[in-house]
Amino acid sequence: METHYRELTEKEICRGLFRQFIRRQIVVECWRRENEKWVIRDDPFIDDWSESDYEFLVTCLKNTIATGGFVYGFFCDGILKGFTSVEKALFGTAEKYLDLTSLHVSQDMRGKGIGKILFHEAGRWAKEHGAEKLYISAHSAVETQAFYKAMGCVEAKEYNQQHVEAEPYDCQLECQL
Fold it and tell me: Residue 48: which CATH number?
């Protein structure tokens, strides 16, 4: 099994790149904010991407690169099995955040440290581009939140309203770089 990590180019991002990527996540418990406290609630569902979700993803990742952002992938035997993306525009009242817009590992490759490497590469790139913190609007699944906590993420001190409105159940996080 040959594995490698590398930055992706706009030209190579297409639906075919994700042909063997398995987004599927079985979710049982999620973090929810109730009465100003975070609690775990049962909210079982299966999170997966439809064909239109993949088309939207391709458009977003191409835009990230076209606007100077970062898209970085993990490949196993030439097949994309993980990726992350960071937008280029600093934001927040002190313009100290860069937006980690995606970090996904294919279901068949989770638990092998790939997400950790992708996260650290995103942070390295963000720091090189002037950020003090990564901002993450993260899935509220208990497992997803455990990953981000292990990476050093905490609740964001300053929420990005666009993310809150787009995904009201996401947890808004930040990570000091």
Answer: 3.40.630.30
Number of domains comprising the chain: 1
> Mean pLDDT per 10-residue run, the chain (177 residues)?
97 97 95 93 93 97 98 98 98 97 98 98 98 98 97 97 95 98
pTM, 2 dp:
0.95
Question: What is the distance between the alpha carbons of residues 151 and 157, in angstroms, rounded to a whole number?
Answer: 17
**Domain with 162 in it:** 3-176
- Full DSSP string of the chain: --EEEEE--TTT-SGGGGTT----EEEEEEEEEETTEEEEEEEEEEE---HHHHHHHHHHHHHHHHTT-EEEEEEETTEEEEEEEE-S--BTTTT-EEEEEEEEE-GGGTTSSHHHHHHHHHHHHHHHTT-SEEEEEE--BHHHHHHHHHTT-EE-SS--HHHHHH-TTSEEEEEE-
